[in-house]
């Protein structure tokens, strides 16, 4: 089962899943004018992660359990427990697309926090070299430059990815941590989940596997001043594998480490139960766009699906926003305005931005200033317009302002008329959208905003915009 695939779109109920393994949550269904979002919440270590079975005879979907291989070190796959025994919630949100996008049901039904969050548990933004520069750039000098980059952009974190132990080393990472502290930037480190399901060679391996090895490593990292961990390459949804997630989260909590799970399952509201769980991948994110052209070709429609599906309830480490070029193999299909809009459209406890210092230096000053001020926490969300896989316009409130983001997933220009009666905004707003000069071309203007106003905005093919209330 993989959470890192593209959504199948506009397929009839009853269609079998392509792999035969079933359908991951959340699944979005349409019946006439009504929409239904199906997901799961409140998963505990006494149950496995489930899915919808591939077959749905007469349109009836049933819950499916994991494959027998989806276990942790030979542990249980199917659910087993002593009494009393509670199952997870199975969630169906029914209503309009507005109901779907604005719902918090999948978080509300998750278990309450196991322990109170401390002041060191802080959402934020992170610079990150790996997605555009690759393994070979996990070096001391490059990571020092990305610390400077995070500081210049007023971002809180710098993510140092795989092979840091061999290409930098613990002692030199400690130097980077001390250097970053002087610039009010915290360091996050990558780890391999390892285990018998995992043949990925990237180090560090096996430090997370047992309680004893985790505590040894956590003590060392805490003394170094590490702020959080990105742990990668998990092995499925079996009950014992779900228990592995819980083991890591519970052991990391006393150290206040911020946790990011990659190559992982859907969090199912676990970010409420464990406030230090900042984000989870569980999506075909931007790294896939960098791998091959066919993924880049699908990014516009894929991104326009996610505000209605994967990112409704749970934080999503898509690692968005490449404003400039990707690499020599892949041509980006989205505009720079589209990529900029993802900084607001997608939500994640820590948002790892794909853009590197060289690309950021090419954008207009007003774009950099915008990215310095995007809030780390959203207090409210309103759906303004859209259709899954075609386009999306969402407003989010943070730091006493409303940020509106729009993306066009289709290859034709869209003329949108946005009603702002849901937003308590007056006066002017600042619009940043695509200019007419090709790549890295932006345009900025002031627009009148207000509850009695309807905004008309034209969005280029595969383009996007952001609009901030003043």
Polypeptide structure, described:
The structure is a single chain. By secondary structure, this protein is α/β, with parallel strands linked by helices. It folds into three domains: 27-108, no CATH class; 124-373, Aldolase class I (TIM Barrel); 380-469, Immunoglobulin-like. It is 25% helix and 25% strand. It is built from 14 helices and 20 strands. The protein has a seven-stranded parallel sheet with strand order 11-10-9-8-7-6-12. Strand 8, helix 7 and strand 9 form a beta-alpha-beta unit. The longest helix is centred in the middle third of the chain and has 14 residues, at 211-224. It is globular, with a radius of gyration of 22 Å.
Key features of this structure:
single chain, 470 residues, alpha/beta, TIM Barrel, Immunoglobulin-like, 3 domains, 7-stranded parallel β-sheet, 6-stranded antiparallel β-sheet, 14 helices, 20 strands
């Amino acid at each position: 089962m993989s959470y890192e695939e593209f959504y199948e779109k506009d397929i009839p109920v009853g269609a079998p899943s392509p792999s035969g393994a079933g359908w991951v949550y959340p699944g979005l269904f349409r019946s006439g004018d009504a929409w239904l979002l199906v997901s799961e919440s409140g998963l505990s270590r006494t149950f496995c992660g489930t899915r919808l079975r591939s077959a749905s005879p007469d349109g009836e979907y049933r819950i499916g359990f994991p494959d027998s291989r989806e276990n942790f070190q030979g542990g249980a796959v199917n659910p087993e427990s002593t009494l009393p025994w509670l199952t997870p919630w199975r969630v169906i949100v029914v209503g309009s697309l507005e109901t779907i996008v604005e719902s918090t049901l999948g978080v509300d039904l998750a278990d309450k926090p196991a322990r109170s969050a401390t002041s060191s548990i802080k959402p934020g933004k992170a610079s990150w070299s790996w997605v555009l520069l690759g393994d070979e750039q996990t070096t001391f000098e490059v990571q020092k430059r990305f610390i400077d980059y995070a500081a210049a952009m007023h971002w809180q974190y710098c993510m140092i990815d795989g092979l840091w132990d061999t290409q930098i080393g613990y002692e030199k990472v400690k130097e980077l941590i001390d250097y970053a502290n002087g610039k009010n930037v915290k360091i996050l480190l990558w780890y391999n989940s390892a285990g018998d399901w995992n043949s990925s060679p990237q180090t560090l391996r096996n430090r997370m596997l047992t309680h004893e090895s985790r505590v040894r490593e956590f003590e060392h990292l805490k003394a170094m001043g590490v702020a959080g961990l990105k742990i990668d390459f998990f092995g499925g949804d079996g009950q014992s594998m779900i228990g592995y997630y819980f083991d890591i989260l519970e052991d990391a909590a006393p150290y206040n480490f911020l946790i990011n799970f990659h190559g992982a399952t859907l969090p199912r509201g676990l970010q409420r139960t464990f406030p230090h769980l900042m984000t989870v991948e569980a999506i075909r994110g931007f790294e896939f766009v960098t791998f091959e052209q066919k993924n880049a070709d699908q990014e516009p429609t894929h991104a326009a699906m996610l505000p209605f599906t994967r990112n409704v309830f749970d934080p999503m480490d898509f690692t968005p926003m490449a404003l400039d070029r990707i690499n020599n193999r892949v041509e980006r299909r989205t505009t720079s305005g589209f990529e900029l809009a993802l900084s607001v459209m997608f939500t994640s406890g820590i948002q790892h931005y794909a853009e590197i210092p060289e690309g950021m230096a090419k954008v207009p000053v007003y774009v950099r200033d915008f990215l310095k001020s995007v809030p780390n926490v959203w207090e409210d969300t309103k759906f303004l317009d859209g259709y899954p896989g075609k386009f999306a316009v969402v407003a989010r409130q943070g730091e006493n302002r409303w940020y509106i983001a729009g993306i066009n997933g289709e290859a034709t220009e869209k003329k949108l008329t946005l009603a702002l009666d849901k937003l308590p905004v007056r006066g002017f707003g600042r619009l940043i959208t695509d200019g007419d000069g090709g790549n890295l071309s932006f345009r900025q203007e002031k627009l009148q905003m207000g509850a009695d106003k309807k905004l008309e905005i034209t969005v280029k093919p595969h383009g996007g915009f952001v609009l901030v209330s003043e």
